[in-house]
Amino acid sequence: MSPRPVLADVEKGTELPEQVHRVTRADLVRYAGASGDLNVIHWNERVALEVGLPGVIAHGMLTMGLAARSVTAWAGDPGALVEYHVRFSRPVVVPDDDAGAEVVVRGRVSALLEDGRVRVDLTVTSGGDKVLSLARAVVDLS
């Protein structure tokens, strides 16, 4: 884990370290159990295809959580994340193999706000496609 960023050293344009998260079907099973979201599109290929999806997909909230974890890892404190917004633009398709899918999270400080807070804009992709749009976090670095 990298040291917590110091507000005085953070400026507009500061880039967060890229984070790559691997999501497998086993992860989907664990997340379903923890979240209570047992929707079959997250584990049954046939049903996912029947409803028009490209295959089994990761839970949107799992994808959102992975992106948030990238921000809190950079901030050094989960409590530093004080606002968080995303829109789901594409699903993360998780193949039935040991490799799974990659979710890549990149971030950049886009604004210095009041009271030691910064806004971080995120780019979250899987398979080269943007899976979260308008992903933004406000982080308290004071």
UniProtKB/TrEMBL annotation:
It comes from the Bacteria. Gene3D superfamilies: Hotdog Thioesterase (3.10.129.10). Coiled coil: none annotated. InterPro entries: HotDog_dom_sf, MaoC-like_dom. Residues 19-119 form the MaoC-like domain. Pfam families: MaoC_dehydratas. Belongs to the enoyl-CoA hydratase/isomerase family. This is MaoC family dehydratase. It comes from Goekera deserti.
